[in-house]
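I am still getting used to backbone structure tokens and would like to learn alongside you. Label the sequence line and the structure token line clearly, so we can match residues to local backbone shapes. Would you write everything just below, so we can both look at the same thing?
***
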Amino acid sequence: QVRLVESGGGLVQPGGSHILTCEAPGATVSCMAWFRRTPEDERRGKEREGIVSYDTGDGTIDYDDSVKGRFRVYTTNAKNILYLEMGSLKPEDTAMYSCAAETKRIACRLPIWGDNFSSWGQGTRVTVSS
């Protein structure tokens, strides 16, 4: 397992931007991903959904349609810090965002499942509201 440290949650106005950070200090990972679970998901007992995956091997990044064109991930040269830059935020982006990482080689493409990951951050809540 890898220790993941997330930061950046908070309150953001609709249309605004925000950045989340996921750091895996000292770790070599093969796949990182951002998941989120909205309040509606929680009410329905639905699992968190993978919205972005990043394959550190070939650099492939996949975005879910719900965030494509609005969210962007980028990383450091060391590839162990993954930033999630969120733009044009909508109230429906309100969710608990969680970072996940895996050191073993896995299929690092969307759709991606939480069960594929052995390491998770603590989660950070983003609320989009005026």
